[in-house]
Design goal:
It is built from five helices and nine strands, in the order αββββααβββββαα. The strands form two sheets. Strands 5-4-7-2-9 form a five-stranded antiparallel β-sheet. It has a four-stranded antiparallel β-sheet with strand order 1-8-3-6, with no helix packed on it. The protein has 258 residues and is an alpha+beta fold. Keywords: Membrane, Signal, Transmembrane, Transmembrane helix.
Length: 258
């Protein structure tokens, strides 16, 4: 085994952990996708998201549109609308969903200021969701109320921020998709894989740092000891103290002055 393997492990292990965490926490936005052939008076439930409470913009959605028609989509009355999950909004719309026309649904969305005409903002645009109270679902619907080409349209809605959960098309008409929030932080953290990954990183990095410091202290101590021994061995001879009462030059017949 190489003599410098502790230093190598300390250098390589954090890099491997960072790669593992990056793979675990890679950005993967929840999204809704639809592929429909437009027709006059058509409406399609796309699914939706659950959003939490915020003082300003609770969520940010990125909408991408791919229109296959030959005429500009701005000339058609095609809308993306959102219905707040409260009883006086989505509750009202869902009770009469199969009995109201495309225009009726659009009028309800306009009254709640949650209607966007496709094509007027380009092929990609951002929708900001305002919600200051509660935690609830939002249902998103594609409306084609006017004359339009019977051509395929592809739509994708990505929740870049704020989504607690999402649900598919034609589901959760009568009940919420919002998760039941835990009552303690430990319950929420312990159920998340990322929490245990971060805890493992902290423990491993702490062990590696302590091991590296211990090895460094031992190496420094060994070097200091070696230097001290060499200093005692390699050096000038010790001086002999001069005593005036001892005659110099006669090591075997020492005489003293009387």
């Amino acid at each position: 085994m190489p003599r410098n393997w502790p230093a190598t492990m300390v250098t390589v292990l954090p890099f491997l952990l960072i790669v593992a965490v990056a793979a675990e926490f890679s950005i993967n936005y929840p999204s809704l996708e639809a592929e429909v052939t437009l027709k006059a008076g058509g409406y399609w439930h796309l699914g939706g998201f659950c959003f939490g409470q915020d003082d300003s913009n609770v969520a940010r959605l990125k909408v991408q549109v791919d229109w296959k028609g030959s005429r500009p989509l701005e000339d058609a009355s095609v809308y993306l609308v959102g219905f707040d999950g409260r009883e006086d909004r989505w509750g009202v719309a869902s009770e009469t969903w199969n009995r109201t026309t495309c225009e009726d649904k659009w009028q309800m969305a306009v009254a709640w200021d949650s209607s966007t005409k496709l094509g007027t903002r380009g092929q990609a645009f951002v929708v900001k969701v305002l919600q200051k109270t509660g935690v609830r679902d939002w249902h998103f619907v594609l409306l084609s109320c006017g004359s339009v080409e019977a051509v395929e349209l592809q739509l994708k809605i990505q929740a870049e921020r704020g989504a607690l959960s999402y649900f598919e098309a034609n589901t959760h008409f009568d009940h919420s998709s919002c998760p039941v929030l835990p009552t303690s932080w430990w319950q929420q953290a312990s159920s998340a894989l990322g929490f245990w990954v971060m805890l493992l990183i902290v423990v491993v990095c702490s062990f590696c740092m302590a091991f590296f410091i211990g090895c460094s202290v031992r190496l420094c101590g060994l070097q200091e000891y070696t230097t001290t021994v060499d200093a005692d061995v390699v050096g000038k001879p010790c001086e002999i103290l001069h005593d005036e009462n001892i005659a110099e030059g006669h090591p075997h017949h020492l005489t003293k002055e009387l």
